Amino acid sequence: MYKICLLLALLIAQFALAQEKTQQEKPKELEEVVIEKETKTFTNKNGNIKVDVANSIYNSVPNTLDLLARLPKIQISPDKESISIVGKGSPLLYIDNQKADMNDLNSLAVEDIKTIEIINNPSSKYEANGRAVILITRKFSKKEGYKVVVSETASFKKYFNNYSGINGNVKSGKLEFKANFNYNQLKVWESNGNDFTMPDFGIQSDYLVTAVTKRPQFIFGGGVFYKINEDDYLSGNFSRRSQDDIFDIVTHTFNQDQNGINEINTLSNNDEYRNFTNSFLNYNHKFKGLDVVLFSGFQYSSFNQKMKSTISNNYNDTGFELEQYRNQMFGIDVFSGRIDLEKKFKNDMKLELGGLYLQANADTDFEVENINLPSSVNSIYHFKEKNIAAYTQFSGSYKKVNYAIGLRAENTIAKGKYATESSLSIDKDYINLFPKAQLEIAIDSSNSISMNYAKSITRPNFSATSQTTIYINPYLVWSDNINLDPTLSDEISIGYQYKDKSIKVAYFRTTNPVYYSTSYNETQNLLTFISTNFEKETNFNIELTLPFKYKFWTNTNVLSLSQNKVEDKSAVVNESEPNLYFYTNHVFTLPKKIDLSINAWGLTKQKLGIYEGNALFVVNAAVSKTFFKQLDCTLSWDDIFRKMNFKNEFTINNVSAKGKYYTDSRAISLAVKYSFGKIKKIRIQRKKYRRKLGKN
Questions:
Q1: Of 474, 469, 472, 470, nearest to 259 (Cα)?
Q2: How far is CA 116 from the centre of its chain?
Q3: How close are the terminal C-alpha atoms of the chain, in Å?
Q4: Is 90 exposed, middle or buried (0-12, 13-18, 19+ CB in 10 A)?
Q5: Are the C-beta atoms of 490 and 516 separated by less than 8 Å?
Q6: Is residue 225 within 8 Å of residue 178, measured between CB atoms?
Q7: Residue 440, SS3?
Q8: How far apart, in whole angstroms, are the C-alpha atoms of residue 311 and residue 321?
């Protein structure tokens, strides 16, 4: 018994010494904390789709326009000069808190993009110029140190295209610097054709045009971001894109009229230079005593285009003869400033106020010298536009109801004048009011119903103020229209959301919609393709957004059934029929850090009253693999079945047209990205917490 008690005493003493030694050890410091969170490439909220670009296979796409073309509902025009959303028309483009345009997208490096969001029902905070918003959010680093990404993409289309870039950022304390430089050596193939019939003049004509453009392109930029404190920051950014376009346009034309039959081969030698510069400065400040957040931003952009053309015609194989010289110059400068105030109240209520001032100045110099019948045309045109806007929006929630009511007022002042005329050719000064209302009712944690109303406007793009025309053949030119009126739309929609799946029904009515039209000048024997305002357009749409996930397989599906009708007295209006748009995207996360992506979209035959379009079906695929945590390789195949060709038929002003537009979208690309740098690890020290007995 004595021995047992002694043994127990020794064990207790040894245990006590071990405990004391443990308590005397210093707390260890965690060198690094790695938090891994699975991110969704696509998220859906009431039909608004958000895409995580930075952490997905989309980060390897060589340029921003090609990236957007792979996303749900987004359509890029064959000439890549405009963008539209199925069922919504031309969207408003935003990069962070600043309005953007196609030039900004062409100058934005994919490596800088964090997320892209397609907003179907934008609030009054955004300009009323469009029924939807594409919001691009750029990346900023949270870790100190530096990182450099070197990228190289080889793309094989009809011709070889190469994209090279270097992107870097340095962060020290509250200050971060970013810079990028890209050099792209491109060779672009384009082709289109049209068959025309004009019974009133006994004319039948058709053409097929092909152009191959050599385009060396430089894109560079830089930015600074200064985090003043948790709520305040100051940021600035500068970007520039310049390119030379050297291209020949070759056109074969058959023309039959009362004077006989002619077959003409047209050769147009063109030398064009473009440059675009964009810069902005943003400041964000929170007045803590008032709980008010102030955002102010200033932006300046400049675009310049110069083109020289030499045109020759070969009539009926008699040999090429010089026809004319063309010199065209276009420049535009845009300055804007905006201010936004946000005040939060109790019960999740929020009041937003803001204003915008924008001024644009555009100049066009258009000169044509005809050789065979010596004559010349010289036209200089000046255009100025001001937009002044103010908005207010009140939002909040009551029990299970979320609401937002907003009103935006915009004053537009536009003046255009030819240098040779004393009076203004354009003199507009108008004010529009744009009410918006949103209501969301939560049935439970998984089900909700939403209702929206919005009035919006689509103003002519500033580039439409250019007098630039494209010579196709002696009988046809493509031209801009400086006299376009704005388009006004009213839209109402109701939607239902179950978890991450949604269905939406919408109806809109538009006055003065803009589409291509034709006009024939009998004196000049010249047919002009030109953008024109039509009387009205109506659309009824049902849209389903259905994302799914099963283990390593994630997919997003969009189905949109719509009936669209465009009407005008000058055109033959046929019966409109419903058409179906579908989009499906599948991402497979495979072992050994391999990602496989397959997406497809299609559109059934379109009968839109005036216009008839063909069915489309496009399939893309990509596979990505990461090596050594620093080297990303992606192999992609776009438009696998080569179906991205458009057809369009209409009859306007007694001119019947059947157009065909061929795209060079089929491509096999290999993208390689190598990143290196020195990022400081996050260190977290253990803190001591004291707790009293009986207290939580």
A1: 474
A2: 9
A3: 47
A4: middle
A5: no
A6: yes
A7: strand
A8: 9
**How far is C-alpha 152 from the chain's CA centre?**
23
CB 359 within 8 A of CB 339: no
Average pLDDT rounded to a whole number, residues 550-566 = 93
**Rounded to whole angstroms, how far apart are CA atoms 278 and 221?**
9
Confidence of residue 129 (pLDDT cuts 50, 70, 90): confident
Tokens coding 431 = 């004010």
User: Across residues 650-678, what is the average pLDDT?
Assistant: 92
Can you spell out the DSSP letters for 606-665?
Answer: EE-BS-EE--EEEEEEEEEEEETTTEEEEEEEESTT---EEEEEEEETTEEEEEEEE---
SS3 375: strand
Residue of 536, 533, 485, 532 lying closest to 510 (CA atoms): 536
Distance of CA 314 to the CA centre of its chain: 41
* Higher-scoring residue by pLDDT: 104, 695: 104
Max CA pair span of the chain: 133
Mean pLDDT confidence for 53-65: 87
DSSP conformation letters of 170-235: EEETTEEEEEEEEEEEEEEEEEEEEEEEEGGGTEEEEEEEEEEEEEEEEEEEEEEEEE-SSS-EEE
Q: How far apart are CA 8 and CA 688, in angstroms?
A: 34
Spatial distance between the Cα atoms of 472 and 123, rounded to a whole number of angstroms: 43
Rg (CA), the chain: 30
CA 346 to chain centre: 36
Say if CB 677 and CB 169 are below 8 A apart: no
Arithmetic mean of pLDDT over the chain: 88
Q: In angstroms, what CA-CA distances link 545 with 73, 323, 539, 616?
A: 11, 54, 19, 20
Using a 10 angstrom Cβ sphere, with 0-12 exposed, 13-18 middle and 19 or more buried, the burial of residue 187 is: middle
Which class for 568: exposed (0-12), middle (13-18), buried (19 or more C-beta within 10 A)?
A: buried
As a whole number, mean pLDDT of residues 99-107 equals 85
In angstroms, the CA 207 to CA 252 distance is 6
**What percentage of the chain carries pLDDT values higher than 90?**
66
Token digits of residue 398: 């009551």
| Complete DSSP assignment for 391-415 | EEEEEEEETTEEEEEEEEEEEEEEE
The answer to whether 177 and 222 are in contact (CB under 8 A) is yes
Task: Tell me whether residue 392 is exposed, middle or buried, using C-beta atoms within 10 angstroms of its C-beta: 0 to 12, 13 to 18, 19 or more.
Answer: middle
Closest CA to 391 of 131, 123, 118: 123
Spatial distance between the Cα atoms of 328 and 466, rounded to a whole number of angstroms: 9
pLDDT band at 53 (very low <50, low <70, confident <90, very high): very high
Query: CA-CA distance, 672 to 163, in Å (whole number)?
Result: 10
Report helix, strand or coil for 20.
helix
Give bridge partners of residue 465 from the DSSP assignment.
none
548 vs 545: CA distance, rounded Å: 10
CA distance 58 to 74: 15
- Core vs surface per residue 405-430: b (16+ CB within 10 A) or e: bbbbbbebebebbbeeeeeeebeeee
How many whole angstroms separate alpha carbon 474 and alpha carbon 262?
A: 11
CA distance 205 to 527: 10
**3-state SS of 132-175?**
CEEEEEECCCCCCEEEEEEEEEEEECCCEEEEEEEEEEEEECCE
Q: Which CA distances in Å does 110 have to 60, 101, 116, 563?
A: 8, 16, 11, 35
Per the CB < 8 A criterion, the answer to whether 186 and 230 are in contact is no
The whole-angstrom separation of Cα 370 and Cα 615 is 42
